[in-house]
Amino acid sequence: MPPADSSTTAATEARAAHAVVLDRITVRYGDARRGRRGRAPVTAVSDVSLTLDRGEFVVLVGPSGCGKTTLLRIVAGFERPAEGTATTHGEAPTPGRGTGVVFQQPRLFPWRTVGGNLAFALARHGVPRDARAARTAELLSQVGLSGMEHRRTWELSGGQQQRVAIARALAGEPELLLLDEPFAALDALTREHLQEEVRTLASRTGTTVLFVTHSAEEAILLGSRVLVMAAGPGRIVEEIAVPLPREPTTDVAALRGTAEFARLRGELAASLRNTATS
Ligand SMILES: Nc1ncnc2c1ncn2[C@@H]1O[C@H](COP(=O)(O)OP(=O)(O)OP(=O)(O)O)[C@@H](O)[C@H]1O
C-alpha cells in the first residue's frame, strides 16, 4: 500500500476534530443541461464554507430561498453537493448516523401512540426491545412529557407533538442535532417555552446544534453564533457571535429582558434588513 499523503491525513484529522465541516459547497437543483421542460438549473447555494465545533449551537438565518434548508439537508446527508465537500465528525454525512433531525412539521406516525413512535425510533437505532420502555420514559422526561407514552399523537397539541419529534430525534443519542424551523407553526407562548427548553437541553447534553429560523429573536436567544445568509445565490454574508451565558442553569426566560439581548437582536435585525435590500 502506498504511504498515506501526510497533507491528506492532516486534512482528514482536522475535519474529524469538528462536528461539521462544509468546504466550498455549491448545490444545484435541476438538470445541469436545460431540462426537458426547458427550465434552467437553480444554484441554491454557492461556495459556502462553514465549520461547527463540537458543542456549538449555530443558527442559520436569512430571507426565504437563501438556501438554509439546502445547507441543513447537505449536513443531514439527504443531499449531495455539486461542488465542495461536507463532513460530519470527519465522515461523509449519512442520514440517521449520529445525527437527529427535526422539521417544521412533527411528522409522527398517527397510527402509533407516543411511546410507539419513540419505540420505533429506538428499534431503528438498535436499542434492544427490553430496554425501550425505560429509554422512552427517559426521552419523554427530557422533553417535559413524562407519562404520555399511551397517548395518541393526534390527541396532543402542536407543541406537544413537536416535543415528541424532538424526543424522537434524541432517540439515537445524536452528537449532532439539526432543526429546520421547528417552532414556526406554534403559537408564541409555546414557541417561547420550547426555545428555552431546547437551549437548556443543548447546554446540558453538549450536543452540537445547527438550527434554521427566519426569526432574529429566536436566532439570538438560541445561537452561540448566528450566520446571516443572503439569496441569489445562497451564501453566508455575516457572522454574529452571541456572548450570552449558556450554562444549563441559565434563566433563559430572563435573558430576553436583558439590554445585551436587545442590542444583539437589534444588530441582527439590521443585518437582515441590509441583506434583504442589497
Ligand atoms: N427540490 C428543489 N428543486 C428545485 N429548486 C429547489 C429545490 N429545493 C430548493 N430549491 C431552490 O433552492 C433555493 C434555496 O431553497 P431553500 O429551501 O434551501 O431555501 P430556504 O432559505 O430554506 O427557504 P425558506 O426560508 O423559504 O424555507 C430556492 O431558490 C429554492 O427555490
From TrEMBL:
Pfam family of the protein (one): ABC_tran
Domain of life where this protein originates: Bacteria
SMART domains xrefs: AAA (SM00382)
Coiled-coil intervals, chain numbering: none
SUPFAM superfamilies: P-loop containing nucleoside triphosphate hydrolases
Domain ABC transporter: 27-256
PANTHER family, per database record: ALIPHATIC SULFONATES IMPORT ATP-BINDING PROTEIN SSUB, TAURINE IMPORT ATP-BINDING PROTEIN-RELATED
Molecular functions (GO terms): ATP binding; ATP hydrolysis activity
Listed name of the protein: ABC transporter ATP-binding protein
